[in-house]
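mind reviewing both lines:
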Amino acid sequence: MDNNKIGKFIASRRKEKGLTQQELGNNLFVTDKAVSKWERGLSLPDITIIEKLANELDTDIYSILQVEKKDDINIEKILQEERIKIKRQLKRKTLIFVLPIIFVGCIILFKLIPFGYNIEHIRYTHTENKIINLGVPKFSFLKKNNENSYSYKSFRGKSILKSELKNYVNTLEHISCNNTTYFYDSDANITIIDYYVKGNIFYNTISYNIRNGNYCNDWQIKEYSKKLGVLNAFRTLYDEESNLIIQFLPSLKINNNQNEWIATLDIYYNDGKTKKVIERSSGTFEIINDELIYYRTKIMEHENDIEIPNVSNFVIKEQKLILKENYLKDYEKSITLK
Protein backbone atom coordinates (compact mmCIF):
# COMPACT_ATOMS: atom_id res chain seq x y z
CA MET A 1 0.00 0.00 0.00
CA ASP A 2 1.06 3.54 -0.73
CA ASN A 3 -0.59 6.12 1.50
CA ASN A 4 0.31 8.91 -0.93
CA LYS A 5 -1.52 7.10 -3.76
CA ILE A 6 -4.48 6.52 -1.42
CA GLY A 7 -4.55 10.24 -0.62
CA LYS A 8 -4.40 11.24 -4.26
CA PHE A 9 -7.24 8.81 -5.10
CA ILE A 10 -9.47 10.23 -2.34
CA ALA A 11 -8.77 13.78 -3.48
CA SER A 12 -9.45 12.90 -7.12
CA ARG A 13 -12.78 11.19 -6.38
CA ARG A 14 -13.86 14.04 -4.04
CA LYS A 15 -13.24 16.62 -6.75
CA GLU A 16 -15.07 14.49 -9.32
CA LYS A 17 -18.04 14.47 -6.96
CA GLY A 18 -17.82 18.25 -6.66
CA LEU A 19 -17.29 18.13 -2.89
CA THR A 20 -15.08 20.34 -0.80
CA GLN A 21 -13.01 18.92 2.04
CA GLN A 22 -15.40 20.60 4.45
CA GLU A 23 -18.47 19.06 2.77
CA LEU A 24 -16.95 15.58 2.66
CA GLY A 25 -15.92 15.87 6.29
CA ASN A 26 -19.41 16.95 7.34
CA ASN A 27 -20.90 13.94 5.55
CA LEU A 28 -18.51 11.63 7.39
CA PHE A 29 -18.74 13.53 10.72
CA VAL A 30 -15.04 14.39 10.67
CA THR A 31 -13.22 17.70 10.25
CA ASP A 32 -11.94 19.10 7.00
CA LYS A 33 -8.44 18.83 8.55
CA ALA A 34 -8.89 15.06 8.82
CA VAL A 35 -9.83 14.90 5.13
CA SER A 36 -6.83 17.06 4.28
CA LYS A 37 -4.51 14.65 6.13
CA TRP A 38 -5.95 11.65 4.23
CA GLU A 39 -5.39 13.40 0.90
CA ARG A 40 -1.81 14.39 1.82
CA GLY A 41 -1.00 10.83 2.90
CA LEU A 42 -0.46 11.87 6.54
CA SER A 43 -3.17 9.56 7.93
CA LEU A 44 -5.79 7.02 6.89
CA PRO A 45 -9.54 6.85 7.51
CA ASP A 46 -10.63 4.78 10.47
CA ILE A 47 -12.06 1.31 9.77
CA THR A 48 -15.42 2.52 11.08
CA ILE A 49 -15.84 5.17 8.39
CA ILE A 50 -13.89 3.83 5.42
CA GLU A 51 -16.97 2.02 4.03
CA LYS A 52 -19.05 5.18 4.35
CA LEU A 53 -16.22 7.09 2.65
CA ALA A 54 -16.37 4.61 -0.25
CA ASN A 55 -20.14 5.20 -0.57
CA GLU A 56 -19.67 9.02 -0.54
CA LEU A 57 -17.09 8.73 -3.32
CA ASP A 58 -19.08 6.14 -5.32
CA THR A 59 -16.29 3.58 -5.13
CA ASP A 60 -15.29 0.63 -2.99
CA ILE A 61 -12.89 0.04 -0.10
CA TYR A 62 -10.41 -1.85 -2.28
CA SER A 63 -10.13 1.00 -4.74
CA ILE A 64 -9.57 3.48 -1.93
CA LEU A 65 -6.85 1.32 -0.38
CA GLN A 66 -5.33 0.57 -3.78
CA VAL A 67 -5.37 -3.21 -3.13
CA GLU A 68 -6.60 -6.15 -5.13
CA LYS A 69 -9.99 -7.48 -4.06
CA LYS A 70 -9.65 -10.88 -2.37
CA ASP A 71 -11.86 -12.85 0.00
CA ASP A 72 -9.20 -13.30 2.68
CA ILE A 73 -8.09 -9.65 2.89
CA ASN A 74 -8.23 -8.20 6.42
CA ILE A 75 -8.99 -4.52 5.87
CA GLU A 76 -8.52 -3.62 9.52
CA LYS A 77 -5.08 -5.24 9.59
CA ILE A 78 -4.08 -3.45 6.41
CA LEU A 79 -5.13 -0.09 7.86
CA GLN A 80 -3.26 -0.78 11.12
CA GLU A 81 -0.06 -1.71 9.29
CA GLU A 82 -0.35 1.33 7.07
CA ARG A 83 -0.85 3.62 10.09
CA ILE A 84 2.35 2.22 11.63
CA LYS A 85 4.11 2.86 8.35
CA ILE A 86 2.79 6.45 8.26
CA LYS A 87 3.95 7.06 11.84
CA ARG A 88 7.44 5.88 10.94
CA GLN A 89 7.48 8.14 7.89
CA LEU A 90 6.36 11.08 10.00
CA LYS A 91 9.11 10.37 12.56
CA ARG A 92 11.71 10.32 9.80
CA LYS A 93 10.39 13.55 8.31
CA THR A 94 10.31 15.15 11.75
CA LEU A 95 13.90 14.12 12.45
CA ILE A 96 15.03 15.41 9.07
CA PHE A 97 13.36 18.72 9.87
CA VAL A 98 14.23 18.98 13.57
CA LEU A 99 17.85 17.80 13.56
CA PRO A 100 19.15 20.73 11.46
CA ILE A 101 17.26 23.12 13.77
CA ILE A 102 18.80 21.47 16.83
CA PHE A 103 22.23 21.58 15.18
CA VAL A 104 21.90 25.28 14.33
CA GLY A 105 20.55 25.98 17.82
CA CYS A 106 23.55 24.24 19.40
CA ILE A 107 25.91 26.32 17.26
CA ILE A 108 24.13 29.52 18.28
CA LEU A 109 24.25 28.56 21.96
CA PHE A 110 27.92 27.58 21.63
CA LYS A 111 28.66 31.02 20.20
CA LEU A 112 26.61 32.97 22.74
CA ILE A 113 26.97 31.15 26.07
CA PRO A 114 29.94 32.27 28.20
CA PHE A 115 32.10 29.29 29.17
CA GLY A 116 34.84 31.32 30.83
CA TYR A 117 38.57 31.02 30.28
CA ASN A 118 41.48 28.83 31.32
CA ILE A 119 44.77 30.17 32.64
CA GLU A 120 47.38 28.73 30.31
CA HIS A 121 51.03 28.60 31.33
CA ILE A 122 53.11 29.47 28.29
CA ARG A 123 56.84 29.62 27.77
CA TYR A 124 58.06 33.10 26.87
CA THR A 125 61.50 33.29 25.23
CA HIS A 126 61.68 36.65 23.46
CA THR A 127 63.75 38.68 25.94
CA GLU A 128 63.75 36.25 28.86
CA ASN A 129 63.19 32.52 29.17
CA LYS A 130 60.33 32.03 31.62
CA ILE A 131 56.75 30.83 32.06
CA ILE A 132 53.98 33.41 31.73
CA ASN A 133 50.21 33.25 32.24
CA LEU A 134 47.47 34.09 29.74
CA GLY A 135 43.70 33.81 30.08
CA VAL A 136 42.49 31.83 27.07
CA PRO A 137 38.73 31.38 26.40
CA LYS A 138 37.67 27.75 26.61
CA PHE A 139 37.49 25.66 23.42
CA SER A 140 40.20 27.76 21.77
CA PHE A 141 42.76 26.01 19.58
CA LEU A 142 45.74 26.47 17.27
CA LYS A 143 48.01 28.58 19.47
CA LYS A 144 50.57 30.68 17.62
CA ASN A 145 53.17 33.10 18.94
CA ASN A 146 55.65 35.51 17.45
CA GLU A 147 58.04 37.28 19.81
CA ASN A 148 55.64 39.40 21.92
CA SER A 149 52.33 38.28 20.39
CA TYR A 150 50.16 35.22 21.07
CA SER A 151 47.03 34.18 19.18
CA TYR A 152 44.37 31.47 19.27
CA LYS A 153 41.46 30.45 17.06
CA SER A 154 37.91 29.90 18.29
CA PHE A 155 34.55 29.07 16.71
CA ARG A 156 32.74 30.93 19.49
CA GLY A 157 31.10 34.34 19.12
CA LYS A 158 33.18 37.49 18.83
CA SER A 159 31.33 39.49 21.49
CA ILE A 160 31.44 36.71 24.09
CA LEU A 161 35.16 36.16 23.45
CA LYS A 162 35.79 39.88 23.95
CA SER A 163 33.87 39.72 27.21
CA GLU A 164 35.90 36.76 28.49
CA LEU A 165 39.20 38.45 27.59
CA LYS A 166 38.04 41.57 29.41
CA ASN A 167 37.11 39.49 32.46
CA TYR A 168 40.62 38.05 32.50
CA VAL A 169 42.58 41.31 32.11
CA ASN A 170 40.42 42.90 34.81
CA THR A 171 41.94 40.43 37.28
CA LEU A 172 45.35 41.98 36.60
CA GLU A 173 46.81 45.19 37.96
CA HIS A 174 45.82 48.23 35.89
CA ILE A 175 48.75 50.52 35.17
CA SER A 176 48.57 53.80 33.26
CA CYS A 177 51.11 55.71 31.21
CA ASN A 178 51.20 57.49 27.88
CA ASN A 179 47.47 58.25 28.40
CA THR A 180 46.71 54.52 28.11
CA THR A 181 45.77 51.79 30.56
CA TYR A 182 47.68 48.51 30.45
CA PHE A 183 47.38 45.24 32.39
CA TYR A 184 50.28 44.06 34.53
CA ASP A 185 50.74 40.51 35.84
CA SER A 186 53.12 40.86 38.77
CA ASP A 187 53.43 37.07 39.21
CA ALA A 188 54.75 36.54 35.68
CA ASN A 189 56.18 40.08 35.45
CA ILE A 190 54.65 40.82 32.05
CA THR A 191 52.34 43.55 30.76
CA ILE A 192 49.47 43.02 28.33
CA ILE A 193 49.59 46.17 26.24
CA ASP A 194 46.78 45.15 23.88
CA TYR A 195 44.22 42.40 23.33
CA TYR A 196 41.55 41.99 20.68
CA VAL A 197 39.28 39.58 18.82
CA LYS A 198 39.33 39.66 15.01
CA GLY A 199 36.28 38.26 13.25
CA ASN A 200 36.31 35.80 10.37
CA ILE A 201 33.55 34.03 8.43
CA PHE A 202 34.21 30.65 10.05
CA TYR A 203 36.18 31.48 13.20
CA ASN A 204 37.54 34.30 15.36
CA THR A 205 41.16 35.06 16.22
CA ILE A 206 42.05 35.97 19.82
CA SER A 207 45.29 37.95 20.17
CA TYR A 208 47.47 39.26 22.99
CA ASN A 209 50.37 41.68 22.65
CA ILE A 210 52.64 41.56 25.68
CA ARG A 211 55.85 43.10 26.95
CA ASN A 212 58.27 41.64 29.42
CA GLY A 213 58.28 43.42 32.77
CA ASN A 214 56.24 46.44 33.85
CA TYR A 215 55.65 48.31 30.60
CA CYS A 216 54.92 51.63 32.28
CA ASN A 217 58.14 51.40 34.30
CA ASP A 218 60.14 50.87 31.11
CA TRP A 219 58.24 53.59 29.27
CA GLN A 220 58.79 56.00 32.17
CA ILE A 221 62.54 55.25 32.30
CA LYS A 222 62.82 55.96 28.57
CA GLU A 223 60.87 59.20 28.90
CA TYR A 224 62.86 60.38 31.92
CA SER A 225 66.14 59.47 30.20
CA LYS A 226 65.05 61.42 27.15
CA LYS A 227 64.32 64.48 29.30
CA LEU A 228 67.29 64.30 31.69
CA GLY A 229 69.93 62.40 29.78
CA VAL A 230 71.99 60.13 32.02
CA LEU A 231 70.11 59.11 35.18
CA ASN A 232 71.81 58.68 38.57
CA ALA A 233 74.18 61.56 37.78
CA PHE A 234 74.78 64.73 39.85
CA ARG A 235 73.32 67.99 38.54
CA THR A 236 75.47 70.96 39.52
CA LEU A 237 75.18 74.72 39.25
CA TYR A 238 75.72 75.91 35.68
CA ASP A 239 77.47 79.14 36.87
CA GLU A 240 80.93 78.00 37.92
CA GLU A 241 81.83 81.47 39.27
CA SER A 242 79.05 81.39 41.86
CA ASN A 243 79.81 80.89 45.54
CA LEU A 244 76.97 78.39 45.70
CA ILE A 245 77.77 74.70 45.49
CA ILE A 246 74.70 72.72 44.44
CA GLN A 247 74.53 68.97 44.01
CA PHE A 248 71.17 67.55 42.96
CA LEU A 249 71.12 63.79 42.44
CA PRO A 250 68.00 62.31 40.76
CA SER A 251 68.13 58.52 40.80
CA LEU A 252 66.03 55.44 40.18
CA LYS A 253 65.32 52.66 42.63
CA ILE A 254 63.23 49.65 41.60
CA ASN A 255 61.24 48.15 44.45
CA ASN A 256 58.88 45.18 43.87
CA ASN A 257 58.98 45.80 40.12
CA GLN A 258 57.94 49.44 40.66
CA ASN A 259 59.95 52.55 39.83
CA GLU A 260 60.84 54.77 42.77
CA TRP A 261 62.28 58.12 41.69
CA ILE A 262 64.29 59.48 44.58
CA ALA A 263 66.56 62.51 44.88
CA THR A 264 68.92 64.32 47.24
CA LEU A 265 69.75 68.03 47.23
CA ASP A 266 72.84 69.47 48.89
CA ILE A 267 73.47 73.23 48.77
CA TYR A 268 76.46 75.00 50.33
CA TYR A 269 77.72 78.58 50.33
CA ASN A 270 81.48 78.93 50.07
CA ASP A 271 83.02 82.42 49.89
CA GLY A 272 86.53 81.10 50.16
CA LYS A 273 86.69 81.68 53.88
CA THR A 274 83.71 79.87 55.26
CA LYS A 275 81.48 77.06 54.02
CA LYS A 276 77.98 76.83 55.39
CA VAL A 277 75.08 74.53 54.71
CA ILE A 278 72.13 76.16 52.98
CA GLU A 279 70.13 72.95 52.53
CA ARG A 280 70.52 69.20 52.78
CA SER A 281 67.35 67.36 51.90
CA SER A 282 66.03 64.17 50.33
CA GLY A 283 62.77 63.22 48.70
CA THR A 284 61.14 62.02 45.51
CA PHE A 285 60.55 63.53 42.10
CA GLU A 286 58.47 63.13 39.00
CA ILE A 287 58.53 64.62 35.52
CA ILE A 288 55.34 66.08 34.10
CA ASN A 289 55.58 67.45 30.58
CA ASP A 290 58.72 69.62 30.66
CA GLU A 291 59.02 70.05 34.41
CA LEU A 292 60.81 68.11 37.12
CA ILE A 293 58.98 68.37 40.44
CA TYR A 294 61.04 67.69 43.55
CA TYR A 295 59.07 66.72 46.68
CA ARG A 296 61.08 67.04 49.89
CA THR A 297 60.28 64.30 52.38
CA LYS A 298 63.15 65.02 54.74
CA ILE A 299 65.23 68.15 55.44
CA MET A 300 68.37 67.18 57.33
CA GLU A 301 69.96 70.66 57.56
CA HIS A 302 69.09 74.15 56.39
CA GLU A 303 70.04 77.79 56.81
CA ASN A 304 67.71 79.41 59.31
CA ASP A 305 67.41 82.62 57.30
CA ILE A 306 65.96 80.78 54.28
CA GLU A 307 62.52 79.24 54.09
CA ILE A 308 62.92 75.89 52.38
CA PRO A 309 59.84 75.01 50.28
CA ASN A 310 58.27 71.55 50.45
CA VAL A 311 58.19 71.37 46.65
CA SER A 312 60.47 72.83 44.01
CA ASN A 313 59.73 72.94 40.30
CA PHE A 314 62.48 72.85 37.68
CA VAL A 315 61.87 73.62 34.02
CA ILE A 316 63.68 71.07 31.83
CA LYS A 317 65.39 72.67 28.85
CA GLU A 318 67.99 70.85 26.78
CA GLN A 319 68.51 68.43 29.72
CA LYS A 320 69.22 71.38 32.07
CA LEU A 321 67.14 72.12 35.18
CA ILE A 322 66.03 75.73 35.72
CA LEU A 323 64.54 76.50 39.14
CA LYS A 324 61.19 78.25 38.68
CA GLU A 325 60.60 79.88 42.08
CA ASN A 326 64.07 80.82 43.22
CA TYR A 327 64.15 80.61 47.02
CA LEU A 328 67.95 81.10 46.78
CA LYS A 329 67.72 84.54 45.17
CA ASP A 330 69.67 86.08 48.07
CA TYR A 331 72.66 84.04 46.93
CA GLU A 332 72.08 83.66 43.18
CA LYS A 333 69.73 85.46 40.80
CA SER A 334 68.95 82.34 38.80
CA ILE A 335 69.61 78.66 39.36
CA THR A 336 70.38 76.40 36.40
CA LEU A 337 71.66 72.87 36.96
CA LYS A 338 73.37 70.77 34.33
